[in-house]
Design brief:
With 382 residues, the protein is an alpha/beta fold. The chain has eleven helices and 19 strands. Strand 12 and strand 13 form a beta hairpin. It starts with 8 loop residues before the first strand and ends with a strand. The chain binds pyridoxal-5'-phosphate.
């Protein structure tokens, strides 16, 4: 039953594609558990439906950046018997206790966090599940190797007091999307040293993990006990340099499509959109695409962003505004309401998120993740 009026714009999320992507990725890491990374609202695809679909396809862990995201998953019923939930981006103040009480695995990257989690475990009267993160060279979050002995020592002490259990040790790559990058081997070796140190000191984590999407796809030696793909699960390649989604048997999950708001004839020499950065070269037809940067389209793609209308790929003519942009239809006259596909799997000749990334000089991660809350997500193949 579909009594909804046609939508101005919609992001169609193909959950069958997501499940197939999870299976394809699991086949590349057959001896490792699969953590579905669903931070930032599932890279714009919707956190809860994507987490559920990933679990149906065999994910046994779900990963988020913030504790608030992890708690939202738990509130949606995810992570009780079906999967474990790990989050990693904490700031002083927590919410450590809420996470411990919700059985979320928390990540500790420094002594301040270890002190807070131990205090929260004491007040909750419950053992915290802690994963230790080592900075093996990314230079972002994670404890420095020089601080590793102190972290390990304090974890052992808190384990002996029954306040926590170290469930994992992990790290993150800087340049796994650049095949052969000289930082990759040293990061693996620092990780190995941190694992050996922790092992000899007496920690026995359930899972050791390092691989994001590019490492899951191209660096099998880094799969360890668990892989943590994000972007590849959504069917987008981490970088055109390592290949297209199809090269890895992946299919883009999101299709962004709109209904043309207006089609009209204009004379040559007509300025188009703010600043008149496009002027019609001759008599032509213009189509109004009712999507703009208020929906998360990058304004940087003004004059470049591609869109499939009436069987041909057209280009944003002039500025992308907050709510709309214009395409030169070159004399074609589809009716108002005709479909404009901004990006999708590419199988019908439509552009891909990667094409928009190139038009805006960014990465496809940003294109899908920034599609905003004004765009309804329509789930298909649930
Ligand atoms: C985002 C993220 C991932 C997933 O990265 P992709 O490149 O999208 O696969 C994995 N681990 C951590 C720590 C992350 O922040």
């Amino acid at each position: 039953m579909n009594v909804e009026p046609p939508l101005r714009v919609r992001a169609e999320i193909d959950l069958a594609a997501l499940r197939a992507n999870v299976r394809a990725l699991r086949a590349r890491a057959p001896r490792s558990a699969f953590m579905a990374v669903v931070k930032a609202d599932g890279y714009g695809h919707g956190m809860v439906p994507c987490a559920k679909a990933a679990i149906q396809a065999g994910a046994t862990w779900v990963g988020t950046a913030t504790p608030q995201e992890a708690l939202a998953l738990r509130a949606a019923g995810i992570g009780l018997d079906d999967a474990r939930v790990l989050c990693w981006l904490w700031t002083p103040g927590g919410p450590w206790r809420a996470a411990i009480e919700a059985d979320v695995d928390v990540t500790v990257s420094g002594m301040w966090a270890l002190r807070e989690v131990v205090a929260a475990a004491k007040s909750a009267g419950r053992r915290a599940r802690v994963q230790l993160k080592i900075d093996t060279g990314l230079g972002r979050n994670g404890g420095q190797p020089a601080d590793w002995p102190e972290l390990v020592e304090h974890c052992l002490k808190a384990e002996a007091e029954g306040l926590l259990k170290v469930t994992g040790i992990w790290s993150h790559f800087a340049c796994a999307d650049e095949p052969g990058h000289p930082s990759i081997a040293p990061q693996i070796s620092v990780f190995e040293q941190a694992l050996s140190y922790a092992d000899e000191a007496g920690l026995a984590p359930e899972v050791r993990h390092l691989a994001n999407s590019p490492a899951t796809l191209t660096l099998p030696d880094t799969h360890y006990d668990l892989v943590r793909p994000g972007i590849a699960m959504y069917g987008v390649s981490p970088s055109p340099e390592i290949g297209t989604p199809a090269d890895f048997g992946l299919r883009p999950v999101m299709t962004l499509a709109a209904s043309l708001a207006l089609v009209k004839r204009v004379p040559g020499g007509h300025g188009v959109s703010y600043g008149h950065h496009y002027v019609t070269p001759r008599d032509t037809t213009l189509g109004l695409v009712p999507v703009g940067y208020g929906d998360g389209l990058p304004r940087h793609a003004s004059g470049k962003g591609p869109v499939l209308v009436d069987g041909k790929v057209r280009t944003a003519a002039g500025r992308i505004a907050m709510d709309q942009f214009v395409v030169d239809l070159d004399g074609d006259e589809p009716a108002a309401g005709a479909e404009a596909v901004l990006f999708g799997p590419g199988e019908r000749g439509e552009p891909t998120a990667e094409d928009w990334a190139q038009a805006a000089d960014t990465i496809a991660y940003e294109i899908v993740t920034r599609i905003g809350s004004r765009v309804p997500r329509v789930y298909v193949n649930e």
